[in-house]
Amino acid sequence: MKNKKQAVTIKGTKDGLTFTIDETSSMEHILQELKSKLSSKVIDQDQPVIKVNIDAGNRYLTSEMKEQMQEIVRSKPNLVINEIYSNVITKEEAKDWYKDLEISAITKIVRAGQQLHVHGDLLLIGDVNPGGTVSATGNVYILGKLNGIAHAGIEGDPKAIIAAAYMNPTQLRISGFLSRSPDFETEGLYMECAYVNQDTDKILIDRLQSLSTIRPDLGSIERRMING
Amino acid sequence: MGEAIVITSGKGGVGKTTTTANVGTSLALLGKKVCLLDTDIGLRNLDVVMGLENRIVYDVVDVVQERCRVKQALVRDKRFDCLHLLPASQTSDKSAVTPEGIQRIVAELKQDYDYILIDCPAGIEQGYKNAIAGADKAVVVTTPEKSSVRDADRIIGLLEKEEGIGSPHLIINRIRTHMVKSGDMLDISDIVEILAVDLLGIVADDDEVIKSSHHGEPVAFQPDTKASISYRNIARRILGESVPLMSLEDDKGIMAKVKKFFGVKS
């Protein structure tokens, strides 16, 4: 048994530790080895927190497996799991990913009391009337008037944006952030976009043209895959 | 085979019943056979506006529950032979009739009449569902107030989902020109822009409307009030004529006319 290939290889990188897990070993074996390796390694208690990345290679990890590994790593006080990475995902997850990548183009007037929700980005060709709500897990683009509520990154993507040809919303929501219109009557603005400013943690509205500097990677697949 | 038009609004008090009475009267004036159907069961007042309350024997609930035939329940208008009313019940409530029941009645009425105007109760519950059940077309009434435009928007959204009813048409009621001018009321173009449906007509806020409904005589009979001309124009548009929107502005003396002549906006 001793000659056998190691099930867990630990490597130090500049980002912390990387645990590479052998694809062919049994899960039981892996957990055992992980336990023994972590207990044998004498980690100084005064050391700062070390980030741990787990690379499962071509093994599919169920959420149960992930949890077991997390538990073992967490039992060490100064190890924190940063990311569990696997090359493999299920068909279901792939479909969800694909949905998140899509831009759904919808022609419709979202009227008072109506709700429109899509996975991925929403491209609405039409208006959102007062009392209407549109939401998307990704960005919200409105080729029309936004007079109601728009919610971008609804499952928690603070980098999502809302862009509208005419911006006069009752409320803007991005991920968990919310901003509302002022209590006095306002004229809307043409060609505007809303985003969360990381420094102030507030939703800001800016000219559509400035979007290229605020979110240069908006359309890239990589950004959206990370969020997926 | 006639056409059934439901007149609805979502919000109460915007003038559904007045509109039904006057558009119905105007269509009758143009020689069409018209039946008015009141579906506001429990709170009927189309009969009062038409001045026909004292002639009611049976009502729509009696017809649905087969206590009488449709023809027995119809009340003939005192001014026209071609204008009839099927009144709502005052004693039951909205659950006394079903959408299927109304649908059956409307289908029967369509055999004999050119137009059936269905007066819808306020709200979007049972009464509304009953009213739209038999309709081929819908007319949404709104006033230039934000709350009523919001409800009209909601109703249009619901109507668009209904099969068998095309895109609804819009009547903007109770327009006060001086308030629109001073910016204290929505103007017509704002409303049409938000609701994005075809405009069937505009009606000015006119004391004559209140006066005439008080006397049980629809304003559409009067030859030359603003409201009566508006209602008659709406009826002509329903018949397919293209009638331009009338100006609601008052002509204030010779200067206004001169200004108008030279195209100066006052």
What key phrases describe this protein's structure?
heterodimer, A: 228 residues, alpha/beta, 6-stranded mixed beta sheet, 15 strands, B: 266 residues, 8-stranded mixed beta sheet, 12 helices, 41% helix, CAP/MinC_C (chain A), septation (chain A), Septum_form_inhib_MinC_C (chain A)
Q: What sort of overall outline of chain A do the alpha carbons produce when their principal axes are compared?
A: elongated
Determine the fraction of residues in helical runs of chain B and give it as a percent range: 40-55%
Protein structure class of chain A: alpha/beta
Annotation, overall tally of beta strands of chain B: 8
Sheet with the most strands: spatial strand order of chain A? 5-7-9-11-14-15
Largest sheet data of chain A: 6 strands, mixed
Question: Could you list the spans of chain B in which at least 5 consecutive residues all have pLDDT below 50?
Answer: none
Radius of gyration of chain A in whole Å, from Cα?
23 Å
Pfam families (chain B): AAA_31
Protein name (chain B): Septum site-determining protein MinD
Keywords (chain B): ATP-binding, Cell cycle, Cell division, Nucleotide-binding, Septation
Family (chain B): Belongs to the ParA family. MinD subfamily.
